[in-house]
Amino acid sequence: MREMIKARNISDVKKDWEFLHELLICYLSLNPKNTHDIIIRVFADIVVRLLSSSLSNPRI
């Protein structure tokens, strides 16, 4: 998941939310249900890191 986000050069969660949401849905649909909690935790971690970096480096 991180590789996909890095390849897409995503740094703005609000601007790229639709892509991020679709990526999450794809991962959930392609993987067994017993891995969904891990996928969601990783997704949440990535979103928090993206939000944190955008807050510490606001674009003017």
TrEMBL record:
Signal peptide residue numbers: none
Alphabetical list of Pfam families matching this protein: Ovate (PF04844)
Keyword Ribosomal protein: no
Record GO biological process: negative regulation of DNA-templated transcription
Matches recorded under InterPro entries: Ovate, Ovate_C
GO cellular component, one term: nucleus
PROSITE patterns: OVATE
First-listed, main subcellular location of the protein, grouped into a coarse class: nucleus
Domain OVATE as annotated: residue spans: 1-49
The keyword Repressor belongs to this UniProt entry's keyword annotation: yes
Protein's cellular compartments: Nucleus
Keywords: Nucleus, Repressor, Transcription, Transcription regulation
Function summary: Transcriptional repressor that regulates multiple aspects of plant growth and development.
Identification of the protein by name: Transcription repressor
The organism of origin for this protein: Gossypium mustelinum (Cotton)
Source lineage: Eukaryota, Viridiplantae, Streptophyta, Embryophyta, Tracheophyta
